[in-house]
Design the sequence.
């Protein structure tokens, strides 16, 4: 048996407590390492999340591209069929060509030259169309009023006869 005096035992216990306290202080004083570990953990989690998001987006984009490719192939087949049908009907093909040209022309921006040369004619044409539209609306109202009046008179005369 190891016999120690009470003072020696108390000194040994104090040394042990002080050593534990020093280790605890050392661990808590190691803030830099803990911060590095926390940042590294967050970076890893963020990288994983971004990779998952990018992977999901890539999968969705690939799916959309596949669907778009299928649609284009289907449309190409339909156009091929229509072109072969149109070859049998040249008048329909001519009308379709005019329609496509008109739509493309409507989608293209107006140039300065067109604005300066055709602009005044366009404004005149718009004014004429507005006048014709308002005249047609006015005449339509008159026709409707006349129809309602005639129907009312017919109903009144039919009631009076009966």
Sequence:
């Amino acid at each position: 048996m190891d016999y120690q005096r009470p003072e020696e035992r108390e000194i040994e216990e104090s040394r042990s407590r002080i050593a534990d306290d020093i280790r605890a202080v050392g661990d808590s004083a190691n803030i830099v390492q803990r911060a590095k570990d926390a940042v590294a953990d967050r970076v890893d989690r963020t990288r994983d999340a971004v990779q998952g998001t990018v992977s999901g987006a890539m999968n969705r984009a690939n799916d959309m591209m596949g669907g778009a490719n299928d649609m284009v192939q289907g449309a190409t087949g339909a156009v091929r069929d229509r072109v072969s049908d149109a070859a049998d009907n040249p008048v329909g093909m001519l009308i379709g060509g005019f329609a496509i040209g008109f739509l493309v022309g409507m989608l293209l921006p107006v140039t300065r030259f067109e604005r300066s040369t055709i602009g005044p004619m366009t404004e005149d044409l718009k004014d004429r169309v507005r006048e014709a539209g308002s005249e047609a609306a006015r005449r339509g109202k008159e026709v409707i009023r006349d129809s309602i009046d005639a129907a009312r008179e017919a109903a009144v005369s039919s009631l009076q006869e009966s």
In short: Residues 110-162 form one domain. The two ends are 137 Å apart (CA to CA). The longest helix spans residues 31-88. The helical segments are 6-29, 31-88, 90-107, 112-161.
